[in-house]
Design goal:
alpha/beta; Metallo-beta-lactamase, Chain A; seven-stranded mixed beta sheet; 433 residues; Rossmann fold; 11 helices; six-stranded mixed beta sheet
């Protein structure tokens, strides 16, 4: 779920907010919406009049025809086209998430003291990273100063497969269950939008129809899906082996048993397609009588390995986590997991910056830690010997009156930031001597 924290909704050096409708402000007249999921539209109501909402054409269609917003406050924008909005160049890129979801690439005025003429900011919204995204003309060889990153699954334990493999697992189970019990109804969980590739992919592989109710069909017609996908859909429940259901309470054993009793089916098999279903032993399965519920690690968010590949490809100078980052400490912990892949060559808050300056610095540094939001800021130097530590001190303390006293490295005056180095405490000396 996207964090509802105001400061990460603002695009620095602009009058823009991204997915920040809960924090509407007179300072903002340009609201950007990455996609049409409820945790990103929080605070958006039919009476919205605080400014203009910029989004993809699909999302605009949903805002007007599903949420019933006034179309005069919505500006749909094309993908892959640099556009000038309030003096800022913005490019929308497909996010490989749900229909209409986009990455937002901003080129803004630089912060004070920057060596560059512009600051490049990429906001991912929610995304499923794929290597082809790094080859997009707008991103290839582009310097990324700040990356607002979807950190939903930013933990090494999240190692689920690609979507194609997850869909293949669904198809395999459907074939097996259908062979064992020919009159089996298959139900695939979904949201208001999202998971379309899961149930449509399975239907195409098996040559089956997909049943959706009238409201779901109306929403699907707003998504711009290919005609051959739409041809798989039917309102006739009896004509379809696959039914689409909401992911919540409708996918419980009791609810599924009622579905079985109401139709011609002898068995019901349901699927929860979500990355949270991943387990190393394979697909999870809960079976109660003639009802089974499979957890399938089909995700529309990036796995941890994919997030690492994203950061390795883009090499941002700063990362701002947008999920599971409600506190500065939580945000720093997330950034820590990617700091070794970032471009931190200009970050003077990192000890590694000074180590690079020293000719005798070791070629391989320990895994970074963080003390500053959005940036790695140092290395675990507990294994450094005293000789190496002296080299470090020469790099950062020359002429500053640094002294080694009782196992602590101190300056006559110190800044607030400090880092642990084994038994030492390193405090950066103040310029006031």
């Amino acid at each position: 779920m996207a964090e509802q924290v105001e400061h990460i909704k603002w695009v620095p050096n602009t009058r823009f907010m991204v997915d920040g409708f809960r924090f509407q402000s007179p300072r903002c007249k340009h609201y950007w919406l990455t996609h049409y999921h409820s945790d990103h539209t929080t605070g958006l109501t039919t009476t919205f009049s605080a400014g203009t909402i910029y989004c993809s054409a699909v999302t605009a269609n949903l805002l007007v025809k599903d949420m019933r917003l006034n179309p005069s406050c919505i500006q749909p924008l094309p993908l892959n086209t640099p556009l000038l909005v309030d003096g800022i160049i913005v490019t929308l890129i497909d996010a490989n998430h749900c229909p209409g979801a986009v990455l937002l690439l901003f080129k803004t005025p630089p912060p004070p003291g920057s060596e560059f003429s512009e600051q490049v900011i990429l906001h991912t919204g929610d995304m499923r990273w794929h290597p082809r995204m790094g080859r997009h003309p707008a991103l290839k060889n582009e310097r990324i100063d700040m990356l607002f990153l979807d950190t939903t699954y930013a933990s090494p334990k999240h190692i689920f497969p690609c979507q194609e493999d997850a869909i293949a697992d669904i198809v395999k189970v459907m074939r097996q269950e259908s062979k064992a019990h020919p009159d089996t109804l298959f139900i695939v969980g979904s949201y208001r939008i999202g998971k379309e590739r899961a149930y449509l992919g399975a239907a195409k592989a098996l040559g089956w129809k997909v049943h959706v109710n009238a409201d779901k069909l109306r929403v699907l017609r707003l998504l711009g899906l290919p005609e051959n996908d739409m041809a798989l859909l039917t309102r006739d429940a009896a004509a379809a082996r696959i039914h689409v259901s909401f992911m919540g309470k409708l996918l419980t054993p009791d609810a599924l048993t009622e579905r079985k009793r109401a139709g011609k089916w002898t068995h019901v098999v349901a699927f929860r397609p979500t990355g949270w279903s991943f387990q190393k032993s394979g697909l999870s399965c809960r079976r109660e009588g003639d009802v089974a519920i499979y957890g399938v690690p089909y995700s529309e968010h990036s796995s941890f390995a994919e997030l690492r590949d994203c950061v390795k490809t883009l090499r941002p100078r700063r990362i701002v986590p947008t999920v599971n980052a409600s506190t500065p400490a939580a945000s720093r912990a997330l950034v820590d997991r990617f700091a070794d892949l970032m471009d931190l060559s200009k970050d003077r808050s990192r000890l590694d910056f000074f180590l690079r300056k020293a000719k005798t610095a070791p070629s391989t540094l320990p895994v970074p830690m963080t003390t500053g939001e959005g940036r790695g800021s140092g290395s675990d130097l507990s294994s450094f010997n005293l000789c190496m530590l002296r080299l470090l001190l020469r790099s950062i303390g020359r002429g500053s009156g640094v002294a080694l006293v009782h196992g602590a490295v101190l300056g006559s005056q110190t800044k607030r930031r400090q880092l642990s180095i084994g038994a030492f405490i390193l405090k950066a000396p103040s310029s006031k001597q």
